[in-house]
Structure formats: C-alpha cells, structure tokens
UniProtKB/TrEMBL annotation:
SMART domains noted in UniProt: AAA
Domain ABC transporter, residue spans: 18-235
Protein origin, superkingdom: Bacteria
Cellular component, GO annotation: membrane
Record bears the keyword Membrane: yes
Keywords: ATP-binding, Cell membrane, Ion transport, Iron, Iron transport, Membrane, Nucleotide-binding, Transport
Residue ranges of the TM segments: none
Species in which this protein is naturally found: Leucobacter tardus
Database matches in SUPFAM superfamilies: P-loop containing nucleoside triphosphate hydrolases
Molecular function terms, GO-annotated: ABC-type ferric iron transporter activity; ATP binding; ATP hydrolysis activity
Pfam family, one: ABC_tran
Protein name per its UniProtKB record: ABC transporter ATP-binding protein
C-alpha cells in the first residue's frame, strides 16, 4: 500500500491558481498564480524567491486564505482548508511594515494573539518575557512601539507572530524595508529564531542571499509559476 504523502507534510499546495478579475495582473499571463504545487514539511523553512510581481506574495495570501483559489487546493496535514477562514487556520503572518498597534506597548503587541486565545495572564507575561529575550529586546516590554527603530519594530512583529505558536508562519518580505547591513544581521537572527523554535515557515523575498540564509530550501517563481526548486532533503 502506498502511503498518502500529503499527511507526511505540514503544508501541501496542489495546483493552486489565483486570477484577478479587476485587471490588477499587468502581464500577458492572466493568472497571478498559475497551477503551483509544492509541500512544506513540519519544522521546515522554505524560501519563496522571485522578482516583484511574480505572484509570490499572492501565493502567500492564498495559503493564508486571504485570496480565493479558482482551482487547486491548500491542505494542512492532509486536511483541505478551502472552507476554513483565515483566522481559524492557525497561521501567523508577518508583513514588510510589521503592522504593529501603535497605541499599544511592545508587551501588549506581543501578547495580542495570546489574549485572543484567552491564555491566562501569568502565562502570557512569561511568554512575552521569553520572546523578548529570543528576539534580542529584553527589558523593552513597556516601551512604545513608536519609539522603536525599524529593525526593532520587525523584531516585535516577529515576536507577536510567534507568541500564539502558529503551526505555519508566513513571512512576506519582512526585512526588505531595512538597510543592507541591518537586513543581513536580522536574516541571521531570523534563521536562528525559526530553527530555535522549530517553526514551520515560508519566507517570501526577492533577495537570494536572504533566502539562502533563512531557508532550508528555496523555490523560485516567475510570472506566476514555479520554475526551479531545491528538492526536500528526504527526497529519493
């Protein structure tokens, strides 16, 4: 009997296709994402690499449930997520600008998802303290996010996304707004954070050095399609 390989992976994307009906796709190819198929094993970090406009961020949004598929499937551990709304997928998202709550402190930002999950206060506070240590911001709990540098804000955004322990973390160009030196340093830190927490993740980027630094393997997109990819380590 042949095993169902879908259940061996955390995420399975099979033939995913996204089309924009409003003409947002400015290319000869009508599909923003065109029949994309790949898997991400639990605990694996995959880099999704490609130029601006190639469809990588749209694919990430489709995995999150923020863009509808016209065909294909997104599954977690073999379960089709088509009927599962974004807030029930237990996926975390980090965007380029971090999207922090400017009226909340650093600790309140990080604890937000834990509050939604109704985690007890003592447990929330312990988790926030541990995450601030993890992202290199010990003692910053009471600071206003408006006082933080760009790199510090992205560290807080990462801590906030990790706090609820998402089963999949989706990172959409999280370092692209930073200067080169800071970006390189945070890429090393991000790789250590993801591996240290055993987080399953997809990193969208147009920077090959960043992708190779952070990810276990890299998939390349062009014009809505996957064109090259590293084979999983256990592939025969």
């Amino acid at each position: 009997m042949v095993a169902d390989t879908r259940t061996e992976h955390g995420l399975s994307v099979d033939g995913a296709t996204v089309r924009y009906a409003d003409g947002r796709r400015r290319s000869p190819h009508p599909a923003a994402v065109d029949a994309v198929t790949f898997t991400v094993a639990r605990g694996e970090v995959v880099g999704l690499l490609g130029p601006s406009g190639c469809g990588k961020s749209t694919l990430l949004r489709a995995i999150a449930g923020l863009e509808p598929l016209v065909s294909g499937t997104v599954r977690w551990a073999g379960d089709d997520l088509a009927s599962v709304p974004p807030h029930r997928r237990s996926f975390g998202l980090v965007f380029q600008d971090g999207q922090l709550f400017v009226h909340r402190s650093v600790a309140e930002n990080i604890a937000y998802g834990l509050r939604v999950q109704r985690v007890p206060r003592a447990e929330r506070e312990a988790r926030v303290t541990a995450l601030l240590e993890l992202v290199g911001l010990p003692g910053a709990a009471e600071r206003s996010v408006t006082e933080l540098s760009g790199g510090e804000r992205q560290r807080v955004a990462l801590a906030r996304s990790l706090a609820p322990q998402p089963r999949l973390l989706l990172l959409d160009e999280p370092l692209s707004a930073l200067d080169r030196a800071l970006r390189d340093r945070l890429a090393d830190d991000l790789a250590a954070m993801l591996r240290g927490t055993g987080t399953t993740a997809i990193l969208v980027t147009h920077d090959e050095t960043e992708a190779r630094t952070v990810a276990d393997r890299v998939i390349r997109m062009e014009q809505g399609r996957l064109v090259t990819w590293d084979a999983p380590e256990d592939a025969s």
